[in-house]
């Protein structure tokens, strides 16, 4: 019989091997991004990095290097499942400290490389400069406000170049602070935004671990599925999307709010109400990054309403009272943030800019495009835009109805607030007018802390692994022949690297 100590050592060693595999993958991503990443249009500073100039002339090779790194990270992440208590062959869970060190090892090379998988960071830099200069980011696009020759405006993606900002005052306030701090330097601006995203994800990880305990889910499994997820690392740190800030505020707000309700139940009224109000402010800040963050206000509010109903308050009055508390938090937080940043309420009407994108991942967009195609096939004319407005509106209404259902289920106690938020957000993403691969993280992170079924985890792993390869490193489309060359080279390279690694491990075991 194997002694427990020996078994634990073997488990630890296997996990550490996987951590090294993922770290090598992250290093390859970081190096490859210097040539294949989302580089600025003019004045590319990354050519001065070691190997940056060479790699920038070898787009196909450097893109393949990135995808080889992605493959190593994905394989390492998937194979870690048994070591965090997931699956029928689950071993004893590794400690949270090991997962934290793994997160650090996998993010460090990505933190200091060029932007990757998207050009959106240049919109953030330009919008931050607009706010820092005292202009209204909701009045026009970066090209009109900064000028067509401005070094930040020239790197903004074409679709956003003449579009007002779709982001709220918290996101723009942070971008403006970074603009002032870095004097609009591209490299320092990218690094500052990356650091902000990292802080947001660390905060989200803290919340996920505690929400998992609250929902009786193994915390290492939740952190592995949500925070170590390659989709999270590649797009929220590599791509520097604002979702990192949103998730940090939202999930910390959820934990703080539920902790406040727990204290109210224990009779600690002063501390309980302070936490409930703080949660309202934190979640409002999440919504002031992107409006989807406001959803969590409803679920914390319903948890509060449920507590008040348990104390004998009429259900209608309990819900209205909780809604009034959260609405007050929202109004006060918005007023304070607007005063601090000098940004008005233009974000309320500036949310429709992204709707011009036709995203195939959006069910409602796909249905609208198909019906528009049938109309043209029947010689009825091209009414695709009109049909899209109808199908997308129906999708939003259906999602809103489902979220309302989840809210009342939370009030009745038939679903945990964290589960209600995750399921409601999942339906919203599915029916959203525009969907990008990383949008599903809005639902994956809260669901990782609540859903304990293997079917859910298998679906998340399959989706995340596939979507990690979906977007090209530059974040732009390339000729089909070039794309095929990149993927074939990456596949062959990944197979060769993994096979070599397997042989080295086998030989080292044979010699031990």
UniProtKB/TrEMBL annotation:
Keywords: Glycosyltransferase, Membrane, Transferase, Transmembrane, Transmembrane helix. GO terms for biological process: protein O-linked glycosylation. The chain crosses the membrane at residues 20-43, 63-86, 98-117, 185-209, 221-238, 273-296, 316-348, 360-380, 386-408, 420-444, 456-472, 484-505. It is found in: Membrane. One of its GO terms (molecular function) is mannosyltransferase activity. Its main location: membrane. It is a multi-pass membrane protein. It holds the Pfam family MptA_B_family. GO terms for cellular component: endomembrane system; membrane. Belongs to the MptA/B family. This is Uncharacterized protein. It comes from Corynebacterium maris DSM 45190. The lineage of its organism: Bacteria, Bacillati, Actinomycetota, Actinomycetes, Mycobacteriales.
């Amino acid at each position: 019989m194997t002694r427990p100590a020996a078994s634990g050592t073997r488990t630890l060693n296997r996990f550490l091997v996987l951590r090294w595999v993922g770290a090598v993958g992250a290093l390859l991503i970081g190096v490859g991004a210097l040539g294949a990443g989302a580089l600025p249009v003019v004045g590319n500073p990354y050519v001065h990095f070691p190997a940056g100039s060479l790699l920038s002339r070898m787009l196909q090779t450097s893109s393949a290097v990135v995808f080889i790194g992605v493959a190593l990270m994905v394989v390492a992440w998937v194979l870690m499942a048994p070591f965090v208590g997931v699956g029928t062959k689950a071993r004893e869970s590794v400690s949270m400290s090991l997962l934290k060190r793994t997160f650090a090892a996998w993010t460090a090379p990505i933190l200091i490389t060029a932007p990757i998988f998207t050009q959106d960071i240049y919109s953030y830099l330009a919008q931050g400069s607009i706010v820092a200069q005292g202009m209204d980011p909701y009045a026009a696009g970066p090209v009109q406000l900064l000028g067509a020759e401005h070094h930040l405006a020239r790197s903004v993606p074409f679709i956003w170049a003449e579009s007002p900002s779709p982001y709220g005052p918290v996101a723009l306030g942070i971008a403006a602070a970074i603009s002032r701090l870095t004097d609009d330097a591209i490299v320092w601006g990218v690094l500052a935004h990356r650091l902000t995203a990292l802080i947001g994800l660390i905060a989200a990880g803290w919340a996920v671990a505690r929400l998992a305990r609250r929902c009786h889910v193994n915390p290492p499994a939740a952190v592995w599925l949500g925070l170590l997820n390659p989709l999270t690392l590649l797009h929220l740190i590599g791509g520097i999307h604002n979702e990192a800030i949103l998730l940090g505020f939202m999930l910390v707000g959820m934990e703080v709010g539920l902790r406040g309700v727990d204290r109210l139940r224990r009779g600690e009224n002063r501390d309980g109400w302070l936490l409930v109000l703080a949660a309202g402010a934190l979640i409002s800040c999440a919504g002031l990054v992107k409006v989807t963050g406001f959803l969590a206000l409803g679920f914390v509010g319903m948890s509060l309403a449920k507590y008040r109903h348990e104390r004998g308050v009429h259900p209608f009055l309990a819900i209205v009272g909780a809604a009034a508390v959260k609405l007050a938090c929202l109004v006060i937080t918005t007023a304070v943030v607007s005063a601090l940043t000098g940004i008005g309420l233009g974000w309320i009407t500036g949310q429709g800019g992204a709707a011009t994108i036709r995203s195939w991942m959006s069910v409602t967009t796909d249905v609208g495009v198909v019906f528009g195609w049938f109309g043209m096939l029947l010689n009825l004319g091209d009414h695709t835009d009109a049909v899209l407005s109808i199908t997308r509106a129906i999708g939003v209404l259906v999602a809103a109805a489902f979220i309302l259902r989840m809210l009342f289920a939370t009030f009745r106690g038939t679903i945990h607030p964290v589960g209600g938020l995750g399921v409601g957000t999942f339906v919203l993403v599915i029916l959203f007018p525009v969907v990008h691969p990383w949008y599903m993280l809005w639902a994956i992170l809260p669901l990782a802390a609540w859903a304990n079924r293997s079917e859910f985890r298998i679906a998340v792993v399959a989706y995340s692994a596939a979507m990690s390869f979906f977007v090209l490193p530059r974040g732009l489309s390339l000729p089909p022949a070039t794309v095929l060359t990149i993927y074939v080279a990456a596949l062959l390279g990944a197979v060769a690297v993994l096979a070599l690694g397997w042989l080295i491990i086998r030989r080292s075991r044979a010699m031990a």
